[in-house]
Amino acid sequence: MSGSLRIDIPEGQDAIPYVWGDMVPGIGAAASNFSLAVYAHTTLGLREFEAARLRVAQINGCVFCLDWRTERDGEKVDEDFADAVTQWRTTDSFDDRTRLAAEYAERYALDHHNLDDAFWARMTAHYSQAEIVELSMSIGSWLAFGRLNHVLGLDTVCVLPKP
Fold first, then answer.
1. Domains of the chain by range and CATH?
2. N or C: the chain end with fewer CB closer than 10 Å?
């Protein structure tokens, strides 16, 4: 359940900088930098990036992540994109790479023990090994930090961390 903070925030403090910075400075700064690096250094196309990110957000239930849309060069995915991500199996608005990104995000988060040879054959037909590693690290970041913020009730006061 979201909306209620599980961590006491001192009066006058912003929740995210306090929890991610003041409470655990050795870990929080590194986590923040990792989270930012996923956005700053991605080589993935916007649609596949957002398909994976939004699928993890849907699974995590992170309010901030569900509302956030990554912007690149003034471009964002359209308003109906999140609905298409929910229906990644059947939507006709995704190419193979975008559909695979949503599928991988879902399976990574919910069923990683069953990523079989048939799945990997499809992935390697559409993604380079470097792209698979990048997508895996990105999904890991979103899964960990979106879930952390949701579990601690920070997702309603979240902002993208600053370095």
1. 15-151 (1.20.1290.10)
2. N
